[in-house]
Amino acid sequence: MATQSTLMHRLGILLFCLACWLPSSSLQAQGSCPQVKLVFDRLMTQLVDPTEVGLQDLTHPKLSYGHSNGRIENQMDFIQALVSGKSDFKSISSSSFLCEGTAQTAFIRQDLTANIQDGGIDQTIHLHVLYVFTLEQKTWKLIARQAVKRNPS
Fold first, then answer.
1. CB of 108 within 8 A of CB of 133?
2. What per-residue confidence (pLDDT) applies to 2?
3. What is the C-alpha to C-alpha distance for residues 55 and 63, in angstroms, rounded to an integer?
């Protein structure tokens, strides 16, 4: 049976290791946003000028892409709608942007205004959008997106 001093020594080592680990994990989480922002910017470019390869590169195979009208698309449906022109973003602008993350997951909140042609109908949309990215094999991929309508300000 371990003595009290041995237990205290082990507890001290454990606390020291924990103290060393927490700041580095926090820095990793804060450090993920610049990388995720680059992927996000490429995604915004792909929404306006889509290519199948570009969209596949930026999205996870298990993508859940939620629209403000309740429609949900998987990766294949999302890519096909953009590449075929069924959903056609003419322009996108952002009025706010927030990124937060952990070592393996990051999310972005955005207020988006876009001029689109959806099903042949021109319209301007105003959305609050949540994007969720996951780190897979050292590459950030969009795994989920959900939009809700907002009133233009």
1. yes
2. 56
3. 11
